[in-house]
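Comment on this:
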Amino acid sequence: MIGYIVRRLLDLVFVLLGVSILVFLMVRFIPGDAVEIMLGANTDITPDRVAALRHSLGLDLPIHAQYWRWLTGVLHGDLGTSIWTGRPVSAEILARAPATLEVTGLALLLALVVPFMLCTLGIGLLVSTLSSTQQQAMMLTAFVFMLPQVYLSGFIFPIQNMPRIFQLATYVVPLRYFVVILRGVFLKGVGLATLWPQVVALLVLGLIILTLARLRFHRQLG
């Protein structure tokens, strides 16, 4: 049982790689880019300056080269440069981390992250029981779990603007609750007293998903 779970969890590395490629391509195909956001309505910038800025950000590279540059950077701890402040993203995170830890405390962070990780682990195990090959696991994770979670979480589109049937569907999306937690902690500075409904929802969803994965696993053994 443990060996089976370990092998499946290792397969998730390839699944995450595939999902990162899909998300990277989706972001790149959205109209506009970081240069246009940085320049805004500034009409005094010359084309040469725009070209130089695109070159400095690597936006003039082929799409596969852009992805490889991003992936190798992430693996080396380089999360890129903030288009708002011009500072490294990792430095921005570290600069805000002490204040965040001071407000929330390590115990609160663990309490808020662990339920979501429980759901993520459950989804990974459930996918492993539903797939017979690595390719099936990647497709199932990307199109049935990951992409719907991103679109229905409220991270990209406000939930209140979605059709009613999609609004109801968001209640079974773990990322919906985690997005609320992140916004509450980092933007509003609220604590567990406010965010406990989201934590409870994640715990319930995680237990349900893990139970389904366990039942599927025992059925396969039988």
User: Anything to note?
Assistant: The first helix runs from residue 2 to 29. The radius of gyration is 20 Å. The mean pLDDT is 76. The CA atoms of residues 79 and 90 lie 6 Å apart.
